Amino acid sequence: MSLLVFGGLAGALGAGIQFSGDPSAAGPRQQLALFEVIDEGKPELKTRLKTDGTDMAMLPQVDTDGYAEVESGDEPSLDVAYAEGAEATGTGGPSDDVMADGEGVGVRINGKLVKPGESYGEVTKIASLDDAPISGMTETLNGVRLPRIAPDGRTPSEVYARPFANPSQKPVVALVVGGLGINATHTKSAIEELPPEVTLSFAPDANRLQYWIDRARAAGHEVLIELPMENYDYGRMKMHPQTLLAGKGADVNVPRLNTLLGRASGYFGVINYQGAKFAEDAAAVRPVLDVLGKRGVALVEDGSLEEASLDKVADQTHVRYAKAASPIDTKLTADDINLELMELETIAKEKGAAMGAGYAFPITIEMAKIWASELGPKGIILAPVSALVGTTPAELVDAERVATGSKAPAPVNPAG
């Protein structure tokens, strides 16, 4: 009954509205929009391709008068700090380090000072080293091509070294990464990813040794050849057939040395591979270093030898010599390698120069790459190892150049 009553009332009300008109017409009406109301016509599309058929004259024009003198290019815009004389509108790094450089007006991009008239690409380009062998720097002995001092007095340790200058006398660090030529992937990574100031050393039995040396020099790296020297304990490892032996004289070790030196051309020096036993035997070491001195080849010690006589014999035989403070990757963790690299910085600030040595493990390459990129703001310069080797033979000694193995510290290669 109730449903019938309410149904009748609703019907009567509807009939009244139908006959009396639309109730919304009885007063003002306002439309509320939840979103912006736009013209429902076809929207104008932005031109993406020349074939879109859009009339280019219809596109809005941008006033470029203020950009007339700005050059386009691929120069990175991150980490930019302005040197003295340039107006800075933002910060990209610690400006105090930049202002203290005293290198003139310019803008510092990613740690490199770009002066007026220079481009970022020009500043950061890698200068390739000359192809080896260089004329006059080799001779053939018993069918083996060996390095020699040229008739005009040039030595392999100078000619094949990467040029370096430190006129501002800043602390210097150097790094050699070795074991190259055995693993092609790691060798390629070291050549292409490490800064050209990092010295690379190659195993004498590397596959395509000259090819890899040529690639390294083309990328700006100076190179060393590794000399296998007798160790105390080889464990299950097999001794290299040309290992320099303790207790043996020139008749055994010099032919072995010549075989190793004749593997390739283009190296400024040699570096020990192992050798704790050999390096302690001064009598065995002397004839080997005699040959290096007479051929103008430098000697680098990797810092792993505790009781070595190499430094003393190098002084006596006038061999250009440098010694690493320590290996950087005896423990293959990022933290341990980083601590060793930080120690090099400390030594460099205290003594003027320091050198480290490592192998081409992926973690070593990665940590060295990061470390090298952060040296600039610290006021430390990355130098090739050749910049730290000792004096030339006695009659050619230059008082401004010293060996890192010397007990008396002095400026490192200030004249370049």
Automatic annotation (TrEMBL):
InterPro entries, A to Z: Divergent_DAC (IPR006837), Glyco_hydro/deAcase_b/a-brl (IPR011330)
Gene Ontology process terms (BP): carbohydrate metabolic process
Gene3D superfamilies: Glycoside hydrolase/deacetylase
A Pfam family hit: Polysacc_deac_2
Domain of life: Bacteria
Protein name: Divergent polysaccharide deacetylase family protein
Origin species: Hyphomonas oceanitis SCH89
